[in-house]
C-alpha cells in the first residue's frame, strides 16, 4: 500500500525491494492519499483515505490494483485479473459517519466474524489506534483527537461494533423472512 502511494510511477515492486530504507523514502516525495484506517481481510479490504492530490484516490487504487496484480501474476506464473470489478467508494460527509466507519473498518474482521486461520490472515490499523504502535502508517489524529484517550476510542469502537452486529443480525432475519 505504501509503495503505490506516490505521485511518481514506481516501476517494479521487485526492484524496489532491493533499495535501502533511505532510498525508498527519497522516492516518495509526493503522496496521493493519506491512510486514515485500513483492514486487509483474506478476501477483501477496506480503506478510509484522505485525498492529498487531485484524483489521488482513483490513481492510488488504479496503481494498487494493477501493480499488485502484475506482481502477483509474475510471482506465481499466472495471468488474468485478481480483483473483481472496479473499486467502490463513498464520500464521508459527516464526522459521525467518519467515526462509525472508522470503527467498522478497524474491526471488519469481527464484523464478518472471521476466526481461526482466516483471522490470522487479517491485518488492520486497530493496534495503531488502541496500542503504542511501533510504526505509524495511518493519520490517526483526525479520529483520536476526538477522544480523551486510546482507551476511550476503544470503548467507542467496540460499542459501535455491537450496534453493527445487531443491525446485521436484524437484516439477516428480515432477509430470511422475505425468502420464506
What can you see in these coordinates?
The structure is a single chain. This protein is mainly alpha-helical and 180 residues long. It has one domain. The chain is 51% helix and 9% strand. It contains nine helices and three strands. A three-stranded antiparallel beta sheet has the order 2-1-3. A hairpin with a 4-residue loop joins strand 1 and strand 2. Helix 4 crosses helix 9. The chain is globular. The model has no long low-confidence stretch (mean pLDDT 85).
Compressed to H and E, one letter per element, the order equals HHEEHHHHEHHH
- Content-based structural category: mainly alpha
Helical percent range?
Answer: 40-55%
Poorly predicted residue ranges: none
Q: Give the quaternary arrangement of the chains.
A: single chain
- The best one-word shape is globular
User: Tell me about the biggest sheet?
Assistant: 3 strands, antiparallel
Strand order of the largest sheet: 2-1-3
Strand content: 5-15%
Taking all Cα atoms into account, the compactness measure Rg is: 18 Å
Give the N-terminus to C-terminus distance in angstroms.
44 Å
- Count every helix, treating DSSP H or I runs of 4 or more residues as helices: 9
- Report the average pLDDT across residues: 85
The number of distinct β-strands equals 3
What's the number of domains? 1
